[in-house]
Specification:
Layout lengths: L1 H31 L1
Protein name: Na(+)/H(+) exchanger
Keywords: Membrane, Transmembrane, Transmembrane helix
C-alpha cells in the first residue's frame, strides 16, 4: 500500500510538473505574441 501511494504521488508530481511547464510555455508564447 505504501508503494502504491508513492507511485500515485510520483505520477501526480510528474503531471503537475508537465502541466506547469506547458502553462509556462503557453504563457510565454502568449506574452511574446
Amino acid at each position: 500500500m505504501n508503494d502504491a501511494s508513492g507511485l500515485v504521488a510520483l505520477k501526480f508530481a510528474v503531471a503537475v510538473a508537465m502541466g506547469t511547464m506547458i502553462f509556462t510555455v503557453g504563457g510565454a508564447t502568449f506574452e511574446f505574441f
